[in-house]
Recover the amino acids of this structure.
């Protein structure tokens, strides 16, 4: 077990995030990225739009990341031993493209309560300021939910372009990662990311989120997998792990899961976005 140290866990509780955490070596991360490129080549179309969500349900590559024991050790240090994978999102920024992610809190629209959950973000490529790394506003989680304005901006990679205004940009911290490194962040921490102004692609898998088994979904239905421990609550729709690449039955479940996810994320929204 490589649980977090007490200092690391305290940093997370106080600041609302923790980074960088070594999970894969650069060679291992390179191999993961090569597999990803192959999958993109074969199934790229399916991973676009809202297909960027929950690819771990149909692709063993992402299943193995989401259920990786070293990541789960980190998560166990933060939310305890009974852990569900409640979703993943592939965040890709192509070179010199305008896509960005506005300042937001993950807990604002995802319906998961209580807040014993955490988002983990694994870098599959190098992630730098130039290619659009995330930024965290330290301690912003301590004030709980903030107002968001739904902008539906064309280049905004969030569902509604939801945006927290008045973020003190002199206080935010860049989360640069080497391939194979992880960062984790709190449901209420305000974060976002800028455009990729570089010539290098930026690819990351966000596991959003790992939830304690007691956490319920208040806006709809969530499809989960048991990652560690036991689930005495059965709040969610339990699904099997991916047994192969794009297996028909699993693809059907994936589509159903993503339809339900959209209902949650766009609950009470004035219109639907791309994701
Ligand atoms: O990939 C990004 O830049 C942002 C991802 C994000 O907002 C998240 O993982 O919660």
């Amino acid at each position: 077990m490589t649980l977090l140290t007490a200092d690391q866990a305290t940093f997370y509780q106080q600041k609302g995030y923790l980074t960088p955490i070594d999970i894969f070596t650069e060679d291992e991360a390179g191999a993961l990225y090569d597999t990803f490129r192959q999958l993109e080549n074969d199934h790229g179309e399916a991973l676009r739009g809202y297909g960027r969500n929950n690819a771990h349900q149909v692709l063993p590559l992402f299943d193995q990341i989401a259920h990786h024991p070293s990541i789960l050790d980190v998560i166990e240090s933060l939310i305890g031993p009974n852990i569900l994978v409640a979703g993943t999102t592939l965040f890709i920024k192509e070179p010199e493209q305008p896509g960005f992610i506005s300042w937001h809190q993950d807990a604002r629209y995802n319906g998961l309560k209580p807040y014993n959950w955490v988002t983990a973000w694994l870098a599959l490529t190098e992630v730098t300021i130039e290619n659009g790394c995330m930024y965290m506003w330290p301690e912003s989680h301590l004030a709980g939910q903030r107002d968001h304005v739904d902008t539906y901006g064309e280049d905004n990679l969030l569902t509604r372009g939801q945006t927290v205004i008045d973020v003190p940009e002199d206080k935010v911290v860049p989360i640069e990662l080497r391939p194979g490194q992880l960062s984790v962040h709190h449901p209420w921490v305000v974060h976002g990311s800028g455009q990729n102004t570089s010539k290098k692609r930026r690819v990351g898998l966000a596991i959003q989120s790992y939830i304690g088994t007691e956490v319920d979904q208040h806006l709809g239905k969530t499809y989960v997998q048991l990652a560690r421990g036991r689930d005495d609550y059965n709040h969610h729709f339990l699904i099997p792990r991916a047994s192969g690449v794009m297996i028909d039955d699993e693809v059907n479940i994936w589509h159903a899961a993503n339809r339900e996810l959209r209902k949650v994320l766009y609950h009470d929204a004035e219109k639907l976005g791309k994701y």
The chain has five helices and 16 strands. The CA atoms of residues 151 and 161 lie 5 Å apart. Residues 6-265 form a domain with the Jelly Rolls fold (CATH 2.60.120.620). The first helix runs from residue 6 to 15.
